[in-house]
Amino acid sequence: MDLLNLLLENKIENTLYFPPNIKSSWLVEGVLQLFPEEQPVPEKQSQTLSQEKNTDTLIISAGIHGNETAPVEILLQLLSQLAQGNLPLQHNLLLIFGNLPAMREGLRYLDNDLNRMFGGRYKNFPAGNETRRAIELEAVVHQFLSQPAIMASERRRHLDLHTAIRGSCHEQFALLPYQTREYAADFLQWLEASDIDAVVFHNAVGGTFSHFTSEYFNADSCTLEIGKALPFGQNDLARFSNITEALRNLVAGSFIVKRNKPALKCYRVVDAIIKQHDNFRLNIPEDTKNFTVLAEGFEIASQHNHSWKIASPANFILFPNAHVAIGLRAGLLLAQLT
Ligand SMILES: [Zn+2]
Fold it and tell me: Is 170 annotated as a binding residue?
């Protein structure tokens, strides 16, 4: 049976074994902790090696939205390579399969959007599958990061992998959570080296998983949108090979900055369109692509007594979606950074 079926049938814990130099334990369903075991070092080399030793902490999550299948397949591929000893593990690693009940149904979520609930925001939603999971994931991340081996590690990074619902003028992009401290230069370099097309810097805190790990645990975090996904088994993983390779390099602690694509485009969020009324309207076609440029003065959305007009330079739209629940984001307006 393949790993995906084992994961979906909750049999993976008792089936997957790792080489002796990887210490593994499942913390809750769909959450696997992997630690590199200290290897005995011959005396002659011990000094040089210990100087080079640099164990950081890495969290990679996928399937926070259950219908975003390609990231789940990519994570399973990494897992399989680690288990077969084909990928060395340099860092403490937490792999998270986010929303298994939604994955089984092929749905984004069962009750409410899990990626709006982090940082305690699950309290604003009626109890359900996703509120339970948000509570569980917050607790498990806290438990993982509170272990002595991890407290001693220098850096924490979190990559939360997603695929977009709609088409996009930039197929692969990262969303960096709002943070008051500086963004780590080597993290931005890794994003550049991963050959994604664009990065977007948020201007406000939010309920996403990557905001949570950045805000509460000072992790270098991002939501990584890797393209459009098809149902399980229909994804062409070759389309995501740049991401897979960048993740492998990060896990193995061996990334080098080399970029094959044109220069990375940078944007910042300038305004969020929040749906607060039943009469909310978004005045663009349903299939408008992410990063579409809109004309200055155009009224992109309206509701009750509020209207959003495009003001230069905030003229790019991201994640437009009129069908979100009241109180949630129906789109972001972006300005390009030069
Ligand atoms: Zn998603």
Answer: no
